[in-house]
Amino acid sequence: MTRRGALGGVAALVLASCGGGDAPPPSNRPQAGSGAGLLNSLVALENAAVAAWAAIAELLHGDALRYARAIREREIAHMEQVAELVRALGGTPPEGRPAEEYARLFPRLDDRADALHFARDLEERLVRAYLDALHSLPREDQRSAAARIAAEEAEDLAVVHVLGGEPAAPQPFVTGTL
């Protein structure tokens, strides 16, 4: 399985976790166009990222392991921040799935190089997700949170590049396009 295919599988799991088989929403659910659906997708993506960073950390040592743990903690904080935005709209953010469910969709990670490659792909996807969300989120507080988190994800991506022996920013910038 390719890393791109694995991330596509993670994205599919994220979308699947946003509905289907769940209890009907409460009557005080968020208004259409409030951004709750997109925010819930970001929460689900962050839940997958938390599981991914746990898997990545298993193959790292020393400073790389320390950074992986710190990035995982930051992903948890991002998930909590976005979940709070959903709650502020009267919504219920999606719960994370068991790590084993996410792990089935991850690429095979045999060594440090595989782990860092997966980490780079993951962080690029997170940066793009938040930059893309900026165009669709209707409220200023939502866009502000997405911009702040996108910047932090870009910092994490730079760390991954350096850990892999690459320049922190091998390209002039990361865009919100695929």
Question: Could you explain the architecture of this structure?
Answer:
With 178 residues, this protein is mostly helical. The chain has one domain (3-16, 34-163): Up-down Bundle (Ferritin), CATH 1.20.1260. Helix content is 65%, strand content 0%. It has helices spanning 3-17, 36-57, 62-88, 99-103, 112-134, 140-163. It is globular.
CATH architecture: Up-down Bundle
Number of strands: 0
Shape: globular
SS strand fraction: under 5%
Domain count: the total is 1
Helix content percent band? 55-70%
Q: What's the number of helices?
A: 6
Gyration radius, rounded:
16 Å
List the defining traits of the structure above:
Ferritin, 178 residues, mainly alpha
Map the helices and strands:
Blueprint: H1 3-17, H2 36-57, H3 62-88, H4 99-103, H5 112-134, H6 140-163
Q: Quick recap of the structure?
A:
The protein has 6 helices and no strands.
